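Posting this for the archive.
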Amino acid sequence: MSRNADQLATRERVIAALSRIIGLPLTASRRAADMRTFQFGQLRPVDRGSVGDFALHVQCPWRIEGPDGIVTGRLDLWEPVEDNAPYDKNWDHEKSPNLQDALVKQWLAENELVVTNVDADEFGGAAISFRQGFVLRLFPAGTRGEDWRSFQPTSGARHLVISGGAVERDEERDITNGLS
């Protein structure tokens, strides 16, 4: 298969996988280190918190766009909440309030976010559109490493994993959460 055919297949597979969240609400967003997670559908309890019907774990550049511009994005993680805060060499995004966490929390609280459409590009990028004119954009920007994944938590189903801007082949790693 040529690179162009691979790229087209990536786009088609991303759209097919993400189409399952159309009509579902975005019910939670959390962070593990610098990975942003988004939970779609009904939340249910698990050992260490809660998960939705579908999850998206994002490690590549991303942003949330709204009718008035960028709501937040990956780089806001390394900004303090306070506007024009003086430089503090001891500031730590894990220990002190950061702009990304604050803006995502506000966005979720102020909006009823239901997925209306999904789209993708040939390099594993994706656009998830919501009511009220918001779009979550993912854009892989490297040739190696995991960019993002979509999966159904606790189901044992295989994950769609985008690495290096392409769909990762199932045999490249165990992507079933250790479940068979």
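Residues 3-70+111-170 form one domain. Residues 3-18 form the longest helix (16 residues).
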